[in-house]
């Protein structure tokens, strides 16, 4: 079998690394960022020498930090902790960087830089702290040559996005900025390119002549009770639509770049975002709220926050004009899934028509999977047509071991691969297309029953094929998330 190496790993890995994890004692840092670094350590994917300096608002010293990280790993990761003690030797802790007073570890970092170390600042802090933290790092001279990772959301409205974007560009070149959208780092999402660009079978149908509709569907069974106050101030559309679902839609819709090198891939993604039509809140968007949501502690009694959104997005390129991209997500639904489905048109002429819905469906959950539903001859003496589905789990393909999305994103930062990150231009266009949903035209959320697939009102957004992800027959719920 021919092996085409698409990885951009070791040759670009720096020899020495100092990763400064701001907000290192927070939920995301411990559950995702540090766990990812631990995984990369165990897989031998970190630089030859490396250190992680955690920062925060309370300084209990290195040992307390290491113990806290160990406790978090015991609770949240299923990785063996046999390498933890070795990992912990690379961890230290310091009070956070402030604008007006020198930082206690500045000299250590300067010495590492003089030895050629790459400095990465990972901002795992509240979005409101991104701007002051960036200014503090600039004031302390900690940004020269560094890479800076911004968690999501990078702005919560067109205005706050633009303000933050301007401030970040005052201090950093775009090439230094890594804005996380972990959906771009999923194995399944990245396989969308490969399926399409490496296979004429898919490439030739990837357009409006052959595709009737695209569904990007991320229903979730999850509740929001554990993070009610964050969620109530955010809602499904801001949490998932303008971020992950738009990015995944752009992956499906982009024009074929000459190569998958970062500049060309990112330019293709930015170009397709420019063709996102502004959402039409009346015709193309349904918001929902699950019954019982306002009774959750931390949620306002009269909350109008959306826990569900379905939106029909139009992408006005020659390739996709007239093909609806229907994007859906919601909490407490009957089923969890993360699916991109291209519904293929039936033949308009010829001796046979289809008997069902022909589709190419890629699960972007976990290690990813492709399902191809197509019309076949039913076995037997007569020519009777039937619908069949072929399933291929990507992790069954060949020797290889997927990285979870956060580990993949962290690794990409270390090797300087910006392909799976959002850019200033894509976010600018995302906010432009999303903006009509923020004003007076925002639809009122429609109630739906927990354990259902959301409000029936949204059924009008899809074609006669209906939703490709439906409630499980046994109503027990299936989990395909992450
Ligand atoms: N948790 C998750 O699953 C996800 C989180 N994110 C994003 O990750 C980031 C962190 O979220 P999460 O870990 O959940 O939040 P937490 O509240 O758990 O942690 C935030 C951390 O930031 C520090 N912090 C709080 N306020 C400030 C401030 N004003 N300046 C500097 N540091 C501050 C705190 O430090 P200290 O402990 O010292 O007080 C704390 O450790 C956010 O941007 C969030 O949107 C994105 C996707 C998922
Ligand atoms: O960023 C987010 O993503 C998760 C879903 O992603 P997963 O890969 O962790 O399943 C979503 O549940 C959450 O609300 C959102 O903030």
From TrEMBL:
InterPro entries: G6P_DH (IPR001282), G6P_DH_C (IPR022675), G6P_DH_NAD-bd (IPR022674), NAD(P)-bd_dom_sf (IPR036291). Residues 20-191 form the Glucose-6-phosphate dehydrogenase NAD-binding domain. Pfam families: G6PD_C (PF02781), G6PD_N (PF00479). Its EC number is 1.1.1.49. Substrate binds at residues 182, 186, 220, 239, 331. It comes from the Bacteria. PANTHER family: GLUCOSE-6-PHOSPHATE 1-DEHYDROGENASE (PTHR23429:SF0), GLUCOSE-6-PHOSPHATE 1-DEHYDROGENASE G6PD (PTHR23429). Belongs to the glucose-6-phosphate dehydrogenase family. This is Glucose-6-phosphate 1-dehydrogenase. It comes from Sediminihabitans luteus.
